[in-house]
Amino acid sequence: MKLDHVGIAVHSIEAAVRSYQQIGFTLDEIVTIEEQKVRVAVLAADGSRVELLEPAGAGSPIQKYLEKRGEGIHHLCFQVSDLRQKIEELRAASMQLISLPSQTGLEGRKIAFLHPKSAHGALIELVECESQGSVQHSSKS
Q1: Which CATH number covers residue 68?
Q2: Number of domain units in the chain
Q3: Strand (E) positions, the chain?
Q4: 65-103 pLDDT, tens per residue?
């Protein structure tokens, strides 16, 4: 497995993008994922990727997160080559999943979330990638 990105919950993508650009990140794109009620800004720097997550509608899980915990690291995302197989392995190990691989993330990739109770307080996203060695994203500014 390889780290794909770090997800950070923010109140305002525009304000957060400006801050991350000052750090040295470049904005690739901003998209809305209606299914998850989230607006996402993808930023990259030297092969690393950060996704800024802003609520995009009532009932957004990100809105609930912000109300409970405020801005900050929301999740860590790791690439896997076969999401269904990884889920089977996790279930066999009695790990608790939040979602199944029928959920679609950014760029139409299959994703699943491991409950923080199973990962010592960290929300873990797993994303299926054709090649674990490359971070897949488009470059749009």
Answers
A1: 3.10.180.10
A2: 1
A3: 2-9, 26-33, 38-45, 48-55, 72-80, 103-104, 110-114, 124-128
A4: 999 999 999 999 999 999 999 999 999 999 999 866 567
